[in-house]
Amino acid sequence: MVFQLKWGILATGWIAEKFTVDLLIDPTTRDVKDVSHVVAAIASSSGRTRAETFRIKVKAPSDCACYGTYDALVNDKNVDIIYIASPHSHHFQHTLECLYAGKHVVCEKPITVNAAQARILYQVAKERNLFLLDAVWTRYFPLSIQIRDIISNGEIGEVLRVIADTSMGEDVDDLWLEQKRRKVNLDLAGGALLEIGIYSITWIFQTMYHTLPVDKRQPPSKIMSHMVKYPKTGVDEDTTFIISFPTTTPINELSRTSHGVGMTAFPLASDPDQRGSAGPTVRIQGTRGEIQVFGMAFQPDRYKVIPLKIGDQSVEIREISCPFPAGGHGMFYEADEAARCVRDGLLESEVMPWKESVLIMEVMDNIRGQCDLRYPESVETTAFER
Ligand SMILES: NC(=O)c1ccc[n+]([C@@H]2O[C@H](COP(=O)([O-])OP(=O)(O)OC[C@H]3O[C@@H](n4cnc5c(N)ncnc54)[C@H](OP(=O)(O)O)[C@@H]3O)[C@@H](O)[C@H]2O)c1
Q1: CATH number for the domain that contains residue 21
Q2: EC annotation (predicted)?
């Protein structure tokens, strides 16, 4: 039997549109036959008309409810789960509002602004027996799952180093002029680290931490970072960090340690010509070879597995493409995962366990702390303000 999940969409900005369009794509086009999705309601804080305009634009069915407040959405009895697509400055408050109303939640990345907020959300979800997912979409892609399996199977040996770059190549002054609302706005928790650097951290964690058995996963032993701030607002526009782990993956027979080098920037580009001329955006380097990932780190579309050449033996490079089916953006994979977890009565997904999500927030807290980037109290607060 197909399990159907009824979604509410909270906020109608850029990413909400991509996600909702993906939700509406027939799951069988990606060979998914056990779960399906209904867009049951949409809410915009800019008014009901905005929600209705959004509904028409994404081609959601006419019986989908349109609300002019988030309150109305969280109280809609026809909604099982809410997808939160407000700025991350508001994720803590909006997620709490949904959980207190008894809704399961999928929240856009970063789940919160700091680790203390994330811990509270997971605690409340646990107390209320509700599913809560940190929606770092890249983790749920078939490409990521395949790469994690290759690492776990030991094909590239012991992974000692991962290099990941998520840099957009955007004019920061333009961002500030056009997008005062978000990416470079301190009051909306702007900055490269939380906005896109999280993907470099995601790659480091999903390859060097998540590929270990749960009882072998250990938090980073050391974090070093460097940050360049955008003078007009004080958010980071360019951040580089090294995250060291006391383990390696998939084995640690020699008690070696490993480390990830993460980069992120608005004004620099990982892929300047958007055709891959600069090479891979992620390199996963093991003692028996390496995996190179191509395309933006948040939405890569292919990878290469390159064995280490030993002596005269020939080396066979495997190149694998992972396009998204049915013209989708790849956001349906996290929706399918959420539906399966809710169907099975799970509160958290194994793909992004709560503990790992909090750990990643702690890493970002640490980097921000080292570089003295703090958001206003209204954004960092752990108090529910309603
Ligand atoms: N997974 C991804 O690939 C991806 C990509 C981009 C962004 N994101 C994440 O998704 C979230 C939203 O990003 P976005 O690019 O969609 O942002 P956006 O285009 O600026 O949209 C954010 C929406 O949030 C609502 N909102 C509520 N309070 C707001 C406030 N005080 N200021 C501004 N907007 C407010 C607005 O919708 P209403 O007026 O309808 O309420 C607004 O349209 C961010 O946390 C971001 O990190 C994820």
Answers
A1: 3.40.50.720
A2: 1.1.1.179
Pairing between β-strand 302-307 and β-strand 318-321 as defined by DSSP bridges: antiparallel
Rounded to 5 degrees, φ, ψ at 38 are: -125, 130
Query: Looking at residue 167, which CATH number applies to its domain?
Result: 3.30.360.10
Distance 13 CA to ligand 1 centre (A): 5
Q: Read off the pLDDT of residues 81-107 as tens digits, 9 standing for 90 and up.
A: 999 999 999 999 999 999 999 999 999
Span between the terminal Cα atoms of the chain, in Å = 40
| Cβ–ligand 1 contact at 88 (below 6 Å) | yes
Same domain for 155 and 290, yes or no, is yes
What separation in Å is there between the alpha carbon of 288 and the centre of ligand 1?
Answer: 42
Domain that holds residue 62: 3-137+331-352
Q: In this structure, are strands 318-321 and 81-84 parallel, antiparallel, or unpaired?
A: unpaired
Confirm whether 371 is domain-assigned: no
How many domains would you assign to the chain? 2
Shared domain for 46 and 146, answered yes or no, is no
Q: Judge contact between 110 and 135, C-beta under 8 A.
A: no
| Count of Cβ atoms closer than 10 Å to residue 192 Cβ | 30
In a domain, 374, yes or no: no
Ligand 1 touching residue 299 (CB < 6 A)? no
Give yes or no: residues 171 and 48 share one domain. no
Domain boundary among 264, 298, 321: 321
297-313 pLDDT, tens digit each: 999 999 999 999 999 99
**14 CA to middle of ligand 1, Å?**
7
Q: Taking a C-beta distance cutoff of 8 angstroms, is the pair 202, 167 a contact?
A: no
C-alpha to C-alpha distance for 277 and 293, rounded to whole angstroms: 13
Is residue 384 in a domain?
no
Strands 258-265 and 159-167: parallel
The per-residue pLDDT for range 255-282, each reduced to its tens digit, is 899 999 999 999 999 999 988 899 999 9
